[in-house]
Design a protein that fits this description.
Elements lengths: L2 H22 L6 H19 L6 H4 L5 E11 L3 E12 L10 E10 L5 E10 L2 H8 L3 E2 L8 E5 L14 E8 L11 E4 L1 H8 L5 H5 L10 H8 L2
Parallel strand pairs: 6-7
Antiparallel strand pairs: 1-2, 1-4, 2-3, 3-8, 4-7, 5-8
Helix pairs in contact: 2-7
């Protein structure tokens, strides 16, 4: 084998090995998905450790799962629309937290609405019934029979006593002028397209949350934050 042939072969083998490694790795460098996970981490820290919702820390040890929507945008006059993306993590049998599964959240409403708002939203799922409801293809607040959701906003009096018997407790911290309903009529749905982009392969929500088949090192900070509480 000539020196030129050997060099060419080495180059090709190196490229092939590099491609194999790249294909085997999760897409943790995916900027858009990772940005959402980072924003969810910041929002969770504000809602858990900030002064507005002291009861969050008391409910988290009982949580079966949490969903964090770092930016739920709502606005309009008379007719309003809302939307945002978030992540859901489930409690593992070990007591730790799963990797995040991506969700979309949205709503359309008609009523007294003035100005707009951006909300940081956290759903604390306390029961198996609430968890199973969110795992369905589409969950609509206020429309699911037998699933009790309690919504608490910053500046509105509320405590863990309000959440007695609730399947899901929703906390939201808003910026901007807004008057109108909270989560009533809103829906959440899994976003498996974003799951695929973040993890690679063909993940679904249950495989990420319960089967430990997919992971991404970019989610470690969020998992660690929840694990401290």
């Amino acid at each position: 084998m000539t020196q030129t042939s050997f060099a060419r072969r080495s180059l090709l083998l190196g490229l092939a090995a590099g491609c194999a490694v790249a294909l085997a790795q999760p897409a943790f460098a995916d900027a858009e998905r990772q940005a959402l996970v980072n924003d969810a981490t910041k929002a969770a820290q504000v809602l858990i450790e900030g002064p507005d919702f002291p009861d969050v820390k008391r409910l988290l040890p009982r949580a079966r799962a949490v969903m964090i929507v770092p930016s739920m945008v709502q606005g309009g006059f008379i007719v309003g629309a809302a939307g945002g993306r978030g992540v859901m993590l489930a409690r593992l049998p070990s007591g730790g937290w799963s990797n995040p599964a991506f969700y979309g959240m949205g709503a359309g409403s008609v009523g007294l609405q003035i100005g707009g708002k951006v909300s940081e939203v956290m759903l604390i799922v306390l029961t198996e019934k609430g968890l199973n409801a969110l795992l369905d293809d589409r969950f609509k607040f206020g429309a699911e029979a037998g699933v009790t959701v309690v919504s608490l906003g910053a500046g509105v009096g509320g405590s863990t006593t309000t959440a007695v018997g609730a399947d899901i407790v929703a906390y939201s911290k808003s910026v901007g002028l807004f008057a109108g309903g909270a989560l009533e009529g809103s829906y959440v749905a899994p976003d498996n397209d974003w799951n695929k982009l973040y993890y690679g392969g063909a993940p679904n929500t249950r495989a990420i949350l319960f089967e430990n088949r997919f992971s991404n090192p970019g989610a470690q900070e969020l998992r660690a934050l929840l694990g401290r509480h």
